Amino acid sequence: MAISRYLEYALCRRDALSEPERAVLRDIPVHPASYLDGEVIIRQGAAPEQSCLLVKGMATREHRFEDRARITSALHIPGDFVDLHAFLLTEIDHDVVAQGDCNVEFVDRAVLEQISRKNPHLIRLLWLNTLIDAKLHRVWIATRARLSAPEQVGHLMCELHARLSVVGLVEDNTFAFPIDQRKLAGILGYSTVHMNRVVQKLRARYLLEWTRGRIRLPDPDGLAALSGFDPEYLELTPTHR
After folding, report:
1. Global confidence as pTM
2. CA distance 34 to 78
3. Predicted pLDDT of residue 45
4. Is 88 a residue whose pLDDT tops 80?
5. Banded pLDDT at 2 (limits 50, 70, 90)
6. Sign of the alpha-carbon torsion through 150, 96, 1, 110
7. Which fold would CATH assign to domain 2-141?
8. pLDDT confidence of residue 140
């Protein structure tokens, strides 16, 4: 089974891929698996012998602290290698948890090692995804510290809109969002009541439409202006890497 096309979309948005490099991507052997909402895809602990590409749904990176509530530090979408960084690590310090039903593809570490030896440009682009993931994490920290609740929610929605557009999963400014208000409140550290008030404020300004499992941004530019969203950190300008 060939690797998901979403990875190719994400890489091509950042740099040109040659036909041989596309062929290498498409020929990567994968081990598909499915997970239900709330199931752990990658468990904290020893780094696995495979890397995991998210193909369908969303997943969160979650940190466990004994009896305390989990802390979420990332939200993954299709096309993300959710644990590629573990390729060079011995331990993973977080779980990756399915949000909604998820499909993933596991790639053996030996395959990635072979690509790194024979296809240096391609492996640089794969590592670029990991560096972008780190930038997302830093922006996540900054927005939590500096933005008001409506601005923070708006920033997240603008970010998801931009990231999902890269892999062709936005239509009419609408995308699937398998996370309800209660879960998003927990992810962002708000109460459910406060999250509901934030959503109502954004709806009243015609900046957000949220129906069951779907998000629509009626005015993406207006929401970006409200939340101070600048997509530069997503590295969406194609350039030779």
Report:
1. 0.93
2. 13
3. 86
4. no
5. low
6. positive
7. Jelly Rolls (2.60.120)
8. 92
Quick check: do 2-141 and 147-234 share a fold?
Answer: no
pLDDT of residue 119: 93
Rounded to the nearest angstrom, the gap between the alpha carbon of residue 121 and the centroid of all alpha carbons in its chain is 23
Q: Which CATH number fits domain 147-234: 2.40.10.220, 3.30.750.24, 1.10.10.10, 3.30.1780.10?
A: 1.10.10.10
Query: 129-187: per-residue pLDDT in tens?
Result: 889 999 999 999 999 889 999 999 999 999 999 999 999 999 999 999 999 999 999 99
Any idea which residue has 């062709």 for tokens? Answer: 168
